[in-house]
Amino acid sequence: MPVDTRxxxxxxxxxxxxxxxxxVLGMLDVVLRGAGYRVLTADGGWNAVRxxxxxxxxxxxxxxxxxxxxxxxxxxxxxxxxxxxDLPVLFLSGFHDADLVQRFVASKGFxxxxxxxxxxxxxxxxxxxxx
Length: 131
Fold this sequence. Notes:
This protein has five helices and five strands, in the order E-H-E-H-E-H-E-H-E-H.
C-alpha cells in the first residue's frame, strides 16, 4: 500500500488559486492564507499556466473558476495535469446552469463548489479535495 507523502498541515500545502475576477481572487487569497495555506494566485488561465511553470515544486491543489475568457478552468486543469497527473482540482463556478457544470465536472472526476459560497464551505471542500 503506498504511503501518503503529501504534507498534512495547511502551512505545508500550496494552492494555486485562479479566477479572472480579481475581487474573488483576492478573497480566496486572504481566506486561504488565513487558514494557513501557501497560496499562488493567477488572474486568468494563461497566467495560471505561467505561475505553475515558474513555481519550483508541485502544488497540492488547483482551485480554479470554470469559465474564464482567456483559457477555461478545465483546459488549465488539463495542461497542469499533463505535468502533474495526480493534481487535485477544485472548480468554482457562478454559471447559472450549475447542474450542467456539476455533471461535466463530476464526469471528469473533479469537485465543484458553486458560487456564491461561504468561507466555511470553501475551507471544508479545499480540505476534502486534498485528502
